[in-house]
Write a structure and sequence with these properties.
The complex is a heterodimer.
Chain A (H helix, E strand, L loop, with lengths): L3 E4 L3 H13 L3 E7 L6 H5 L2 E6 L10 H11 L3 E3 L9 H9 L3 E2 L4 H8 L1 H10 L14 H11 L3 E9 L2 E6 L5 H16 L4 E5 L5 E9 L5 E13 L2 E7 L6 H18 L3 E10 L2 E8 L6 H8 L3 H9 L16 E8 L11 E2 L2 E3 L6 E5 L6 E2 L6 E9 L2 H14 L1 E3 L5 H7 L3 H4 L7 H8 L3
Parallel strand pairs in A: 1-2, 1-4, 2-3, 4-5
Antiparallel strand pairs in A: 6-7, 6-8, 9-10, 9-12, 10-11, 11-14, 12-13, 14-19, 15-18, 16-20, 17-19
Helix pairs in contact in A: 4-5
Chain B lengths: L24 H14 L3 E6 L2 E6 L32 E3 L4 E4 L15 E2 L4 E7 L2 E6 L4 E6 L5 E3 L4 E5 L1
Antiparallel strand pairs in B: 1-2, 3-10, 4-6, 4-9, 5-8, 6-7, 8-10
The chains are: A alpha+beta, B mainly beta.
Chain lengths: 447, 162
């Protein structure tokens, strides 16, 4: 087992990893920019190294500085968290070259799943259902014919995109060439790569993803599904484990398909396969080869510490459980509390003047903020994640309502009021929503 | 103790009697008298669209109405850390600092030495490469703040040149 781990991240996820390390008796090294000198993850780690000025490119994305921080502290392994360098294959390569351990999958698999066309082709061969589409790059010459075959509406997607970025819809043949050129232009600007592919556009799908863990001995398990349909501009806002739309049998079925596929692939570490789900059918959209923001809801219903298992897997240990040992208990919901106006979503960095976390049975709040803390304007606006667990979905909603009403984050604007409304909305209470629901709801409020 | 429903107004909003025309001096005197009579240390009210706060002792620091419920963690220092000394040369990178070009050779600089802009002061090693740290300006070395072969982080003061 590692003696010392460096956490190449900040905010709540850095805290999350530090907590897991502490529970395992592993020494922790935090890295930080000058803007984060007073951050909670720096205070709680055993050691810290300032790696650069506020800009992420010169600090949290600064590979040489992070490797140097490992050198001077003697850290043997790096946990990349999510975002930043967590899906950067070059970073994983460099770590390996320096005799250190990257807590995550192999650089090869990071690359494979980072390219959306390759990812789709790979998982299709492994037996995972995919969205009908172009099966590769689409050019102007074949676009119209392909779209006819697939059937409108179609979606043009950037291969170098992800997380919902770089996508344009063509509802009919007349819109096709405009959608193609728009998508290419945006992709070139945002990702430096204008390669695009085409997929059938699903009208009212849910976003359902499967969490998996794979050790270095060929064992793969799934921790059930998460329903992340409530999104604004492709950013998840509210996630549930399990999905209101699936039953235990459907969960077992898709879980089995996914674990068998990843066993064949020889995957290592934690990962999430994301699907669109419509009319009982699953359609693969992408695989995230890292820990995800919403992992706590899966931890709640399985009792498994995903970060702990990531670290154990990276150290070569086998998974301490088989699929048969994993039981799904109750229901969990996470609300991402952002430092933003709850309805316009304008960012609200600033000083937190009062902070009170709700408590009680089944309530968890993962956050790096504290009273008097100044949220810097340079990074994402996630202030904390409220995660609630109960025996069933109804009790979970009631507990969430209670916890939201108790949570106090003053001095900045937060999205707490939005969640207080959502938890009282009939469609949400009934679990009756698709990936378009939240934006329609917000538009209906006049935003 | 206040409940969520009747939280007092945020105390970071201060009145500015010197910028508002026609300050209600009578209201201020009345509040000051109230303070004395009741033994309170601070009163803040909204009056005619303006907020007035009167506090005993002249303290201007905002006061929380309820004790701040910080998470069970070491209390963060509210005061900003004191800045580096004037003339400090900060490290532009993370690594291990060396005072001389090679072990056994004399150090680049010592206290009292005069340096020109661009003179090599230290070497910082990271990822097996040696990086020369040069003087950003000419002057006299007042302090050398790091030991040979010790780790340095971004922004750490290496020496002081004035």
């Amino acid at each position: 087992m590692f003696e010392k781990v460096l956490i190449a991240n900040r905010g709540e996820i850095a805290l999350r990893v530090i907590r897991a390390c502490k529970e395992m008796g592993i020494s922790t090294v935090a890295i930080h920019s000058t803007a984060d000198s007073e951050a909670m993850h720096v205070k709680l780690a055993d050691e810290s190294v300032c790696v650069g000025p506020p800009a992420a490119a010169q600090s949290y994305l600064n590979i040489p500085a992070i490797i140097a921080a490992c050198e001077i502290t003697g850290a043997e392994a790096i946990h990349p968290g999510y975002g930043f360098l967590s899906e950067n294959a070059k970073f994983a390569d460099i770590i390996k070259e320096h005799g250190l351990t990257f807590i995550g999958p192999t650089p090869e698999h990071i690359r494979m799943m980072g390219d959306k066309i390759t990812a789709k082709q790979t998982v299709k061969e492994l037996g995972i259902p995919t969205v009908p589409g172009s099966d590769g790059e689409v050019g102007d010459a074949d676009a119209a014919r392909l779209a006819q075959e697939i059937g409108y509406p179609v979606l043009i997607k950037a291969t170098a995109g992800g997380g919902g970025r770089g996508m344009k819809v063509a509802k009919s043949a007349g819109e096709l060439s405009f959608a193609l050129s728009q998508a290419r232009t945006e992709a070139r600007a945002a990702f430096g790569n204008d390669t695009v592919y085409m997929e059938k556009y699903l009208q009212r799908p849910r976003h359902i993803e499967i969490q998996i863990l794979a050790d270095a001995h060929g064992h793969v398990v799934h921790l059930g599904e998460r329903d992340c349909s409530l999104q604004r501009r492709h950013q998840k806002v509210w996630e549930e484990a399990g999905s209101p739309a699936l039953n235990a049998q459907e969960r077992d079925e898709i879980g089995g398909i996914v674990t068998r596929a990843l066993e064949k692939l020889g995957y290592l570490g934690a990962g999430t396969i994301e699907f669109l789900y419509e009319d009982g059918q699953f359609y693969f959209i992408e695989m995230n080869t890292r820990l995800q923001v919403e992992h706590p809801v899966s931890e709640a219903i399985t009792g498994i510490d995903i970060v702990r298992e990531q670290i154990r897997i990276a150290s070569g240990a086998p998974l301490p459980f088989t699929q048969k040992d994993i039981a799904f208990e109750g229901h969990a919901i996470e609300c991402r509390i952002n430092a933003e106006n709850p309805f316009t979503f304008r960012p609200s960095p600033g000083t937190i003047t009062q902070f009170h976390t709700p408590g009680g049975l089944g309530v968890r709040f993962d956050s790096a903020i504290y009273s008097g803390y100044r949220i810097p304007p340079f990074y994402d606006s996630l202030a904390g994640k409220l995660v609630v667990h109960a025996k069933n979905r109804n009790e979970c909603l009631l507990r969430l309502r209670r916890a939201l009403d108790e949570l106090v984050v003053d001095g900045i604007e937060t999205t707490i009021p939005l969640f207080q409304k959502l938890v009282r909305e009939p469609d949400i209470i009934n679990g009756d929503y698709s990936i378009h629901w939240l934006e329609k709801y917000l538009a209906g409020l006049g935003h | 103790m206040s409940s969520k429903g009747d939280k007092p107004p945020h105390s970071d909003i201060k009145s500015k009697p010197d910028t508002k025309p026609g300050v209600d001096a009578a209201a201020v005197r009345e509040l000051a008298q109230l303070l004395k009579e009741t033994g309170l240390t601070e009163i803040e009210i909204e009056h005619n669209g303006a907020r007035i706060r009167v506090s005993r002792g002249g303290g201007a620091a905002p006061v929380m109405a309820a004790p701040a419920l910080a998470p069970a963690a070491p209390a963060p220092s509210a005061a900003a850390p004191s800045g580096p000394p004037a003339g400090a040369v900060p490290s532009p990178m993370v690594g291990t600092v060396y005072l001389s070009p090679e072990p056994g050779r004399p150090a680049f600089i010592s206290v009292g030495k005069t340096v020109k802009e661009g003179d090599t002061l230290f070497i910082v090693e990271a990822m097996k490469t040696m990086n020369a740290i040069t003087a950003p300006r000419g002057g006299t070395v007042l302090e050398v703040n790091v030991g040979d072969g010790t780790p340095v982080e971004f922004g750490q003061t290496l020496c002081v040149i004035a």
